[in-house]
Amino acid sequence: MAAKAESSSTVQMDDATSKLEQMNISFSIWPPTQRTRDAVKKGIVESLSTTSILSKRYGTLLTEEATAVAERMEDEAYAAASSASVPADDDGIEILQVYSKEISERMLDYMKSRSASPAAASSTLNEDSTVHDEESSTVETQS
Q1: What is the pLDDT of residue 103?
Q2: Which of 71, 110, 118, 143 ranks highest by number of CB atoms within 10 Å?
Q3: What SS3 class is residue 17?
């Protein structure tokens, strides 16, 4: 029974594809719409500025910095994916994988370089000591 349903589903997909071809309509996932690109940028900002796998290891960015970094990363990843060589018959899947990989690599590289940078470490250290000093003065004031 399951094989019959699966076969029927395949026939329906073939019919739908045939109808789209007859109407001269094609479907491709590349290039992404501006709405999709904006959603990707928003996801990058969230990954860099809130608790995530990256932030647990490398810390978080302020939202403003994350927004600027996300804009640049997505633009660079889009350009790299757009210029990548993919098979002529690619429906966008392979190029989308390149785009995703480029974004992931850029996020990781940026966070690694930021945490390895003495200036970044110093900045984080200064922020931590400022918070500690504020907490100490609050405790002293309350005493």
Answers
A1: 97
A2: 110
A3: helix
